[in-house]
User: Fold this.
Amino acid sequence: MKKKIARLASRLFVAGLLVAGVLFLQRPYRNRNEKLIVDPDSELAVHSPAVINIRSPLLTSTLGPPNISDFTFDEADMLDEHGKPYTIVIWKNINGKPGYMANPQECLGNVRCDVTYDKSNMDKVHAVVFPFDGLSSSGLPQNRQPWQLFAWWSLESPLHSSGGGSSTWNNFFNLTFHYRTDADVYAPYGSINLILRELKKAGETELEDLLQRKRGSDKIAAWAVSNCYQPRMSYAKSLMDAGLQVDTFGGCFGGKQLAGNRYSLEFYKALGEYKFYFSFENSIGCKDYFTEKFWFNGLRSGAVPIVWGPRKKDILKVAPTKSFIHSQDFDSPAKMVEYLNYLVKNETAYAEYLQWRTWNKYPERIETRLRMENRENDLRSFCKLCSLVQMHGRARKKGLSMPHKVIPSLHEAWQGAEKGLCHH
Assistant:
């Protein structure tokens, strides 16, 4: 059954890829039976029943017009022209949620690339992802091969990343790889579909179990922060001054730590005893910039995120409507605290912010805009990059070519899109 699911999913996988040098169109994708058949016990079942629509590229290359086979993979497509696995190199180690992977289990289809930090065999790798913060123009890859895709990756907002101000990076990268929805490879800090998968794997499908843990706790709000960015510190203080009970952790508060390692089940369990978590970012109004503070410290743990910094409309593009509380909805910190204290005393009203956690059991309740068929693929970003690598590789094995996009000005691509939006 797992192989059957993998074959089905591979026909649906390559969604949301902005292919170099291409035009895009919206067209429905259907498998041969015009409907998706899914084992109810599989990971795909959270999205079934469904008829999948994906955004497919109209290739302006020797590949000719698009057809279904352009966007599906068989097992042979997971190997390059030498019969070896495709390789993606991350140019330097970075902090973040561990486990960057692209394999059939994670990608739910015939997609596999070795993702590594090993740079010892650069002539043979197929794509390189450059985490840009602190990237130096010295020591870059020599003898770049014509098939290699170079992707620019940023985890920070434009206020805290240089964004290629130097002309060194003009015409160097083929792809942008970041959390903004205008990226060539969309690489958000999280997604609701990934969170649902994690909850299912952990056996956390019963909302009542989470509520019961909270009933046995007098913990209200938590905040872990080590970057003492003054505007968010001030806003947090105003909430505390207005009477909100907050337990603080991290370098800004003496280094006190939550239980367990970050992203561990113990960590999530400790945070899940709280009603709320402060999802406060280090930038204000930056397009699509909200991080693990929202997705994992908040949604994944079961502590409702209180959001400050990101634009509400950006969050609503990708998160359940009633899954967070945004500061912009209140005239003052005192008004927000009044509402939060109301929720503390009214479990029925509070539980409405957690109803999305029942979507694993009741997939028909998933909001239409968040259903997989209406999303550019919500799977791991390295799965999407690997899919693009495989598409190029398959073309090479056929003696064909695919156009490579080149980014003329990285600075304009990154900073230019934020003009008038992003500020301290």
The first strand starts at residue 23 and ends at 28. The mean pLDDT is 82.
